[in-house]
Amino acid sequence: MKTLKHENVGISTFLAFALIPISGFAMDVYIPSFPHMASELHLSESDIKLTLTVYLVSYGLSQLFVGSISDSFGRYRINLISLLVLFLSSLGIAWSSNIHVILSLRLIQAIAISFIVVCKRAFFVDVFTGEKQKNYTSMVTVVWSTAPILAPFVGGFLQEAFGWRANFYFLALYALILLILEWIYSGETLPKKQPFKLKSVMSMYRELLNATDFSLGILVLGLSYSMIMVFSMNIAFIVEHEHHLTAVYSGYCALISGLAMFFGGLWSKKQINKPIYQKLQLSIRSQFIILAIMLSTALLFHQLYIMMAFVFLIHFWLGFSYNTYFTYSLTSRPHYAATASGLASGGSYVIFSIASYVVVNLIDIKDQLTLGLAYLVLLVCVRLTLIVVRQALQKAPTVA
């Protein structure tokens, strides 16, 4: 087995950070193309949104078990195989016009990406220790949030210049370049493999899920990101159908959302040593204040830029919350690095993919008011969960 060489730690760290956003790119890059896909493939809006939901559910569910597989069989070979699968599945989607084929390939693509991301998140726990480990782990969600910044922005221009299939050619090229670089410079980082025994795996899951702060944290992460997902699933239709603008403007709006998440994550990293519940309380209160103003002014203003100003502020605090709790979930269980990472991320993906799909089908989101109402439903759920989280965190005073 090829192990990571000391002289390649620097470039391998760079490659790990380069791969972290790949799940977001696969999720967001083709969002500006939704209306055009629906038109070209003669499908409904719901059918096109389903391609995203299938990806999210598959990505989330697969992360529930890929972490334990990685802890048992290592990171390096799994990562290379997964990058190859991502490359081939992206080409398959680009060449297909059949919705059933596209849905099947999105499912396969999501499983491959879950292996890639879980292995690379665990990389920082495998290779680094102490404050360096904590800082790098905190940077994971900050770097991941670059995908919502760049992906729809890139996707909007690809759509206008070449059409929706170009988005998946872009993903294929991304996977191929990283596959070659990983093969040359990376290596195995897992210091000690855990025996893959179903009983041991289930024991790890029970230990993690029986920790109330961890299990409820998954719910907080999922419900919080549902608000981002609700926005992402509807912004292209709002921009193109309600405001009669092009896909490029959908990319601009997604860029604003992504920047908000990015800066929120950076601010969370700056506050890394402050009590976790204090930070979560600040975030939730700020979001309620912003949302109250957003809803109260919705009937007075109908401009897209005003709606996006509220979106930026709310998504800033969502990025802050997500980074805060995700960092806590990973660093509090370093002995189960990949399993905790997969369970936290995978569980939250399952929650927000289902929650966001339910909300967008219950509420016809077409403007500032309806978007604000969708946010309100999810924010109330987050607040109720945090009440229980507080009690769990009070039992762990060393981290709370």
UniProtKB/TrEMBL annotation:
Keyword Ubl conjugation: no
Top-rank taxon, per record: Bacteria
Taxonomic lineage from the root: Bacteria, Pseudomonadati, Bacteroidota, Sphingobacteriia, Sphingobacteriales
Subcellular localization, as worded in the UniProt entry: Membrane
Keyword annotations of the record: Membrane, Transmembrane, Transmembrane helix, Transport
Transmembrane intervals: 48-66, 78-95, 101-124, 136-154, 166-187, 208-237, 249-267, 288-318, 338-360, 372-393
Any one Pfam family match given in the protein's UniProt record, by short name: MFS_1
Name listed for the protein in its UniProt record: Bcr/CflA family efflux MFS transporter
Membrane topology designation: Multi-pass membrane protein
Organism of provenance: Sphingobacterium thermophilum
Main subcellular location: membrane
Residues in Major facilitator superfamily (MFS) profile domain copies: 12-397
Entries under InterPro entries matching the protein: MFS (IPR011701), MFS_dom (IPR020846), MFS_trans_sf (IPR036259)
